Structures
1.
Amino acid sequence: MIKNILWVGVLLSLSTLVSAARLSGVTSEEQVTSEQGQVLVLNGMGVREKFWVDVYVGSLYLGEKTARVETILGAGKAWRIRMDFVHDEVEQNKLIEAWRDGFVNNQDDPTLKAINARMEQFYGFFDSTVLAKEYYVLEYVPAKGTRITRNNKLLGVIPGEEFQVALLEIWLGKVPADKGLKRGMLGVQ
């Protein structure tokens, strides 16, 4: 009888492991439902580090898993990135500086000019310091745009396919914010 109870406990704990992934104290669900009702699966997760300090855990969700950046960027399909902050606090100006660097490092001048107004709108959603255990969710909804939420509160939607690709390239582009984070999000770590 006790053996059976122990086996049930082991099986239940294994099922919990299958439904979630954990990194730097952050647990990410293995799948989520998009704004349009599509199931998105956890492609991978990684830690954004700055000067050997963990800043946030980034989790990338896609319709199906892939490690091919070209496939992700060219798909035009729903995706979600959840950024769970683990550092005590990240100041607003540091966040915006990191976003600006990410766009500039991965886009040419014509693209930056074309999406400039949307980039400025995006920066406006980062209007205060972010504390540990707070999170942002960035979700691309085809034909609608990129939804930005903070701690489950919708901040706004930024239209445009070109913007969502440029945003993804901050993590997955040729000059990613953090190479380890990129590998983690691609599930190749």
Note: Confidence is low (pLDDT under 50) at residues 4-18.
2.
Amino acid sequence: MRKEFHHIGIPTSVKRPNENYMADAKLYVTDPATSEAHIEWLRFEEGSPMPELLKTEAHIAYKVDNVEEAMAGKERLLEPFDSAPGVRVGFIIEDGQPVEFLSIS
């Protein structure tokens, strides 16, 4: 399976420029493509349904061809979902840390 570094996600309580709001997740997120270091900032609202581990720990994200295949046989943190048109993501737990897989079509 091909796996390519995409970004690192870091939870924050500080408002960042150019945040995008994901209403279902009660989450403000930045586009890592706009960061030289490929950082995605995640700012969660009170009552966000996202897993506590994502709210408190940084995660690394890999671009893969198929999210479901990449997650097969691994401990799942967040089942695959479409975060934007053409973008599918899912999260696993590896050594106690969140890891994201995403595919872009």
Note: The chain has one domain: 3-104.
